[in-house]
Amino acid sequence: MGPFSLRNLLAAGTLQWNLSSREPICNHNHERDGWHPFSVQLLLQQTSSVEEDVFLRQLEFLIRHSFIFVTCRRGCLRKTLYARVYLIPYDLANVQGKLRTRDEATIVAPARRYMRVLLPRLLQHPHLWEGEECATTLEPQFLLPQNIDNRTMAEIYSDLPSPTIDAARLASSSESGWPLARSFLAAENIEGLRSQLYPYQRRSVATMLQKELCVSEILDPLYIPLRGLDGQVFHLQPATTELLRECPLVSTTRGGVLCEELGTGKTVMILSLVLATLDQLPSPEESILDPRTVLTPLSFRHFPFAAQSAARKSLQRRKGKARDAEERQIPSLVEILLNYIRVSPEKIGLRYQEEELEDRQLWDAIAANSPFYLHFNVDTAETRSRSQAANPGPRRVYLSSATLIIVPPNLLGQWDREILKHCDSTLRVLVMRPRMALPRVTDLASKYDIILMTHIAFSLESSKSGVQKLHSWAVCQCPGNQSSRVPNCQCDVRTDVSPLLQIRWKRLVVDEGHTAANTNTNFTPFAMLLSAERRWIVTGTPTTNLLGLSFGHVEDPQSQDPECTGESSRNTPEAQAAEAEQQEVELEGHRRRWTRYDREDLRKLSNMMTHFLGVRHFSAQPKIIDTHLINPLLDGEGPRPGAIQVLNQVMEMLMVRHRIEDVEKDVSLPPLTQETVLLDLDPYALLSYNALQASIAINAIDSRRVDQDYLFHPSNTALLLRTVENLSQSMFWHVDSDRMFNVDELVEDTEKTLHTAKERDVPLEDMDLLHQALHHSRLAAENQVWRFMQACSIDVPYRVYNMPLMIYQSWTRSPIPDAQSPDGLPLVVDYFLHSDRMVKMRQIVETQPLIKENQLVEWGCLVSAEDRRKHLLFLEFERSRKRSRHGNDASELAEEIFKVVGTAKRIESPEKLTEMRKELMIAQEKLRVAAEAEEEEAVADIPRALTEDHNSRFEPGRARMLASSPLAVVRVGPSASSKINYILNEIAQYSSAEKFLIFSKSPLSLAHVSEALEVIDVKYLQYTSKVPPKVREQLVMTFETSPTYRVFLMELKHGARGLNLVTASRVIFCEPVWQADVESQAIKRAHRIGQTRPIIVKTLAIRSTHEEVMIARRDMLKGKAARAQNVIDEAGMRHFIANPKFLPPPTTAVALDIPLINIPIFSPTPDREPESEEMIVEQPLTSLPPTTPPPRQIRKIGFEVDKMDNPPSSSSRATKVDGNVEDIPIPPSPNPKKRKLGGVRFVD
After folding, report:
1. What are phi and psi of 1192, to 5 degrees?
2. Residue ranges under compositional bias (Polar residues) (predicted)?
3. DSSP secondary structure letter of residue 242
4. Per-residue pLDDT, 103
5. What number is the average pLDDT over the span 313-342?
6. How far apart are CA 838 and CA 1157, in angstroms?
7. Which of 389, 662, 806, 1147 is in Cβ range 3.0-4.6 Å of 162 for a Cys bridge?
8. 152, 543 in Cβ contact below 8 A?
9. Is the pLDDT of residue 182 over 50?
10. How many degrees, rounded to 5, is the angle at CA 1176 between CA 1171 and CA 1178?
11. What's phi and psi for 1209, nearest 5 deg?
């Protein structure tokens, strides 16, 4: 029969040709299957097609070099030739390896190309295999699936199957991992775990235990199965077209990627894994050359047994010099036990016997007897018989049952709290706070179960990575303990090498482990140096496009109510065009071409496997990922057949995650509603936006869109990014105090610009665009109020109503309008104050409630003078930096930085920290008391010392005095930022019952929001890059526990990942987020397990700008294709920004109407006797409709705004004295003809 017997080959499929003549095409011999030998030369005579001629010659090459075997026969009508194709496996037996030694360049490489052409053409149908003519009318079936798989990496990731456990092995196996897995799946209690796991969490932990403890061999995931027509299954590597009868086996990795959906409890899963394997010691690193026996200081020095004697002899530096010649006595039973409980601590429960062992004076000896092994270099055994002069000797590696967990700095405190929440006190945890030094190596290896470190602290240890310094022939000579012969070793202290590198860790866990894919930092190289038996990456988004957005029911109110405030942006022409473009690819049956962004995701996945997880199959041959996995996916014609299946198998081998539908069977999160709110710009912000657009338009026309001066030229990427940032910032609030957006220069050069454009004969559409740009530049340049806003402050100005004119004049930075109507009164104009002035003004009135109008005027003059002095100092400082590398942007950048830093400093000021600590104490005391008594009694029992200052700001008498202030009727109206107006309305409406998370990528926008919250007197916390890490942890704890702080302002890049903020139920994004994984991570800070309220997410965008288009294109691309990292890299977004459109005057506006002085209402305490003065209760803010400078009126139960067309004839203010209404005279306005004041009255 021979090795090439047809039963040893894969019956792959058939080919067929229509014949033009009945001449014979075979020599009438018969092969083993009864068909004729295939003759390419005879068939070439009847072929007229060039393509078929090339294909037949390729077949001849493959037959000649034993890649395939082909037989043929005519059909019954003799018009069709059928050919059976058998594939010859590379591992065919009894061929002396000839199939594996074929020349790569001249034979194997061409054969790969030809096989890629052949395999997709092979038809698999039993009737065709028998050469039946009728089979030609049947639906074709191919060897390789012909269905087009246009799934993206995100869709492949989402389709991964949920973890499954081998039921047969689970029931019968006695390996250490299976009993633990059985206990998890049986919902048995986990010793040391306080919390109950959901069923899906138990399955995930059981799978992780299986991966860690049940190491086995699996089929190589780089091969896919192929079934022949005779039922045999062979294995094909799609990239190399290598076919094997037996699929190679690879060892499983003791670890992987825990990538459960965001908010599904990955932290508690890791803690459960730690508790389930609490006292397990890792095995020494595998070595063929050295036995690497597990030793202890006691056994190494004193035990006479063979393993210990061999270890001592291995340290003999000179051949023949015996160092183990001294007679060693047999160890006592106590010493044997001292050794045993350290090398086999599992299930002994040593931690529970500490007191008893201390009483017996054995605990110190046990603690000092740390297990270790001797680690020789690879060449040590080979050179041991030669001179040892160049041999550095072994290094001592300590074995630790601890888990080293590396977390982002902002999650260190959260992990600490989660451990306290889920685990009992038997778990020994070391939290490495900033600037803490690591303990000595033996303490680090033996005294802790978990070591928590930040990414930064871990990376800093890389400066002490000289592992070779640990190699030495020296033998410890330290004396023994007083109560035993265990050496009291003091010679293991090394300051030049990190203790982390002297330990063989049981487990290394990296939270938010997608950072492990970056090989350009110290983190991953140092992690590779670390010796860890089991490695886990914990992340909800392994790469940019691998994310889940579906856990928890997501509602889209826009699909139900298209007229709502957050109107849909998915029906824009741009969105429809982009979606049609994507659908065209699918409808035409083309394969989707994977892009460079897909390559980036694949590269990150590769780095995780090879550099961090150390998957043997890939780390031993790093190039194999490129040749066998990445390149087939990135083929120019789309992924090659089988390439996506290989990717799926590789991901399934490493990743532990449940499908969304399987998670939702066990746990249901509150509904998540996402809404896009489209707003119009305020008229003054509109001038800035159109001025910026004018600059972009004139640049495009002037540079003809090709020169290096063109903003979108490749050499101007940095400038373009800055311009897009300014454009985005202008939709929140942005000033250009130095250049005024170049409007003066553009207006001055109008004639020159138009003349140049006409000379160049620019197209009509560009001429129209140029006229529009110059028109909008002129509108901005001629608006004096806008110019003052640009020049006087970076802050957002607010409209104010009912303020006495003299006070306004002394406190405002804006010009005073002097245009008058025929009756001598000012025309309807806007009066603006900046937030810092209003807050300062309110602080003065609250500290001096009886302050007079003239005193407020004097205060205003002093504050204005001080501001001018500071501004002059700032300008002088900036003039000295004008020649710095920042160039003309120095002043603008410095002012923004000063503002952001100033806002952050307010967060870490002593006063703010004291306030936060007091609120934290109040919250903790409430929790403590509530745990001991009923909730109603608990609130009453809170120590008075903690709460006495909480409402002291509004004593009854002070409230009456505030009501008589000249500023009592002042109202704060809409600001010049429509986004701030919307945010303040939302907070005013909902903050009394719900907490807010407000995200922005711009620290400057968050600084504006923080000042707005100070204006409306709402307590907030801020989490940005300018806030020190030591303060961030306290911010999170305070926000989660204190009811006082209602808003958390979070910089997107710092606050979007890892934090648990379930006390918040409303999320606002100040601008659209292009990267869907970042947005999803931010939302999951609140929408996660533990959340009880429905989550409302609102994204603010300006109508008809790139923000609206960004949302449309992002939603269209979500889950369909890899997306550009930067907005300007995406073709649709780049096109929109490069073709500026000017916005018309706004047709809608966000109303805002709040009191400057928030005077609380009077309300008697129901459970106490009335006193001489009534209790004060703070009144929550309410959102009010826009009105023309609104007067106020007072109700018995609170203040209410009401429009009064005719104020009282005499200037008076009503208040309540002993239940009656009395009028208190109001000082007249300095110029009553120019200002109309509203009245205040008491309403029964």
Report:
1. -130, 160
2. 557-573
3. E
4. 93
5. 73
6. 10
7. 662
8. no
9. yes
10. 165
11. -65, -35
CA distances from 970 to 711, 804, 827, 1018, 1238 (A): 46, 9, 19, 18, 9
Rg over CA atoms, the chain: 38
Residue labelled with tokens 């080293």? 404
pTM for the full predicted model = 0.74
Which helix H or strand E contains 152, and what residues bound it? Answer: none
Least confident interval from 387-396, 559-568, 1077-1086: 559-568
Contact call for residues 980 and 1008 (beta carbons, < 8 A): yes
Q: Which residue, 201, 215, 189, is CA-closest to 270?
A: 201
CA atoms within 13 A on the CB side of 690: 27
Contact between residue 963 and residue 1226 where contact means Cβ atoms under 8 Å apart: no
Looking from the CA of 969 toward its CB, the CA atoms found within 13 Å total 27
Model pLDDT for residues 846-877, shown as the tens digit of each residue: 888 888 989 999 998 998 888 888 777 766 76
Strands (E), 631-717: 655-656, 672-679
Residue with tokens 């959340």: 1091
Specify the higher pLDDT residue, 384 or 511. 511
Helix spans in 707-761 (H): 717-730, 743-748, 750-759
Per-residue pLDDT for 1173 more than 50? no
Length of the chain in residues, anyone? 1244
> Whole-angstrom Cα distance, residue 535 to residue 614?
9
The segment with the largest mean pLDDT, out of 576-590, 657-671, 1203-1217, is: 657-671
d(CA 67, CA 57) in angstroms, rounded, equals 14
Q: How far is CA 711 from CA 716, 718, 720, 758, 1129, in A?
A: 6, 10, 6, 22, 14
Is residue 718 packed enough to be buried (19+ CB in 10 Å), middle (13-18) or exposed (0-12)? exposed
3-class SS shares of the chain: helix, strand, coil, % to 5 = 45, 15, 45
Would you state the pLDDT for residue 1065?
94
What b/e readout covers 530-544, taking b as 16+ CB neighbours within 10 angstroms? Answer: bbbbbbbbbbbbbbb
- Joined tokens for residue 621: 């041959």
Report the amino acid identity of residue 388. Answer: Q
Cβ atoms of residues 125 and 141 within 8 Å: yes
Tokens linked to 957: 């008498």
Model confidence pLDDT, tens digit, residues 997-1031:
999 999 899 999 999 999 998 999 998 877 877 78
pLDDT in tens, 1122-1155: 455 677 777 777 888 888 889 999 888 888 888 9
**Other residues' Cβ atoms within 10 Å of the Cβ of residue 935:** 9
The helix/strand/coil state of 1208 is coil
Strand partners, 679: 1102
| Residue 1222 main-chain phi, psi, to 5 deg | -130, 155
Q: Is the pLDDT of residue 801 over 80?
A: yes
Q: Can you give 358-383 as a three-state secondary structure string?
A: HHCCCHHHHHHCCCEEEECCCCHHHH
For residues 274 and 449, the answer to whether their CB atoms sit within 8 Å is yes
Cα separation, 54 vs 961, whole angstroms: 99
Percent of the chain with pLDDT over 90: 31
- The tokens 């009508």 sit on which residue? 77
Mean pLDDT, all residues of the chain: 78
What are 174's two structure tokens? 């006695």
Torsion of CA 589, 591, 595, 599, to 10 degrees: 150
Nearest to 1214 by CA among 1224, 1228, 1199, 1202: 1224
Distance, in Å, from the CA atom of 213 to the CA atom of 206, rounded to the nearest integer, reads 10
User: Which residues does 493 contact at the CB level (< 8 Å), separation at least 6?
Assistant: 440, 441
Q: Which of 376, 395, 521, 392 is nearest to 458 (CA)?
A: 521
Bridge-partner residues for 534, per DSSP? Answer: 507
Domain map of the chain by residue range? 1-147+225-251, 297-317+329-369, 803-816+829-875+960-969
CA 704 – CA 379 distance, rounded (Å): 67
